Amino acid sequence: MNRRSMITGALASIGAATVGDAGRLLPHTRPDEAGTPLGSPSGGTGVRESLVSANGITLHVMEQGRGEPVLFVHGFPDTARTWQRQMAAVAAAGYHAIAVDMRGYGRSSAPADTDQYTPLHLVGDLVALLDVLHVARVTVVGHDWGAYVAHHAALFRPDRFQAVFGISFPYSSRDDSSSVDKIRALGVPYFYVLDQQKPEADRQWADSRRSIPSALYWASGSPADAQRWSPFDPARSLLRPAPATLPAWIDTGYLSHNVREFARTGFHGALNYYRAIQTSFDLTAPWKGAVIEVPSFYAFGAVDGLVELGRPTRKTLGQGQSHLLGVLEIANVGHWPQHEAAAVINKALLRFLRRTA
Hints:
By secondary structure, this protein is of the alpha/beta class.
């Protein structure tokens, strides 16, 4: 087995299942940083916002449209606003779009304890959210860490998560070794996941005015090949200063929102997802070799730095997903397909929703 395949399996080898507690809607009384009351459309036309008590924490939720529900789950370093283009598209097509600031992000609770960020907690948050919203079953869409959570939600609660659309982080079944152990055994001089786990990562990411634009730009398809983010090269890290003029695909309202949110919250909760990797693996031994049985689809950018770990194919992904309906590789796009190629993602997602209705 080569280095890439070993690391690919390592990163995707953490599985989980959970059940969430019932919660309740909280009053829409707290203004956001711009003074807009929750419940008004700060994320776009017709967007409804609320705070929800679920699974022992508070979650910030955005909703748009009416109809069959579609749940959107973001990754690092991001917020629910990352899905604004997809929410508008599915709402216009007659669906009920739901996006949530995940535990540790935005206006949702951010426990300090690393052990509160295992998939048992994260999937539990989503199950509890569905209970509060009186949603019996949902199609779940996830990007990056959100794809990780979405895949495992579908894996362990197919009664609630009826189909899964993953972006930029592939699923493969858990095996006998944790991702941390596998990466360390390879003896590589640098790997970004290990860097993200260090205590000093909080400080390195802290200036959101710099770190958020940098992560968006360097992980995208916009930089030259030799300068684009590499998970194995610290000289090509996500935290290099971004150009003064950013690509047009980065929506300025979305960028400003995320900069403000992380300036307010910091990055400790978000980075705890990386720090919980080993604990998550330890808790999920019963799901070794488990396969996703619900309909699934995977999309990724052809020049995403994560492709250095191995290029996903229908054959490799199908080993962990018995009803994989397709794999979409998008040329000249990096880690942010929902932004860099929003129209392509929207078309693929709507087709998937129609096929799995």
